[in-house]
């Protein structure tokens, strides 16, 4: 069997085209485009790249970038004051605090300080709570989990009643995607670094989500034939054959797993571009909430 490739790049492009058109229509009607404030603290190169990619995506669709780049030694009070200012600024539609923050900062309280209706990353604890509770809907679905759900639905994964296994329980990916799958009536098993006999669990998965952060960790023998495999990992590995000296691989050994799975996301070109498309979509949702 050769798996269907779940093309996150083209799916994300169609979402971006749609948003671009919506914004152009607004502007043609004399209305302001939305504005996304990004806050980057320190000079972590990976975070700089992520923020740069988000800025490019905003530029592409017509969302205004309101960029705040702060030094590594920024204090909790300074950051708190900036978030409050952005919360009250009508020009700012959404606020994105790039993680991870330098160690001396209290991430949790800063995320909680972002106004719920501007929290386009969906990391406010109230948002996560609303995903978990039956009968409640989150204001924003966190971008990576939202992108994963969109890809599964777009490629007709039968979620209801499926055995879904999520490897990883982080606040930004593993835990929220597990909650979303539960909400969609999958039977969900959350695995993590203390899980015993992982393979016996993953081999039962109709839907397998890998969000571990370990290059090519998921091998073919861990995958049920025909399963939907979503690879969230972005890992840099040495590759002397490349000019850069490295290449990006996922948490799944793509070549061997693609021979067993029914459908699989590539890295790059799978979850990554969908995460950015969902950020743009959440910014449009924030605009809708602001204008209600
Ligand atoms: P994290 O480090 O916060 O969490 C990793 C999880 O993996 C933990 O819950 C841990 O228990 C689990 N784990 C570690 N070793 C394990 C093992 N041997 N067996 C089973 N579970 C194990 O990571 P994260 O923030 O969720 O990110 C995971 C990966 O996804 C990283 O590569 C990250 O770069 C990538 N990521 C990609 C996107 C995207 O847009 N594509 C977004 C966020 C994160």
Describe the structure.
The protein is an alpha/beta fold and 292 residues long. It folds into two domains: 86 residues, Leucine Dehydrogenase, chain A, domain 1 (Rossmann fold, 3-Layer(aba) Sandwich); 131 residues, 3-Layer(aba) Sandwich (Rossmann fold). It is 40% helix and 16% strand. It contains ten helices and eleven strands. The strands form three sheets. Strands 1-11-8-7-5-6 form a six-stranded parallel beta sheet. It has a three-stranded parallel beta sheet with strand order 3-2-4, with helices on both faces. Strands 9-10 form a two-stranded antiparallel sheet. Helix 7 links the parallel strand 5 and strand 6. The longest helix has 21 residues. It is globular. It starts with a strand and ends with a helix. 44% of the residues are buried. The mean pLDDT is 97. The site of nicotinamide-adenine-dinucleotide has 24 residues, from helix 10.
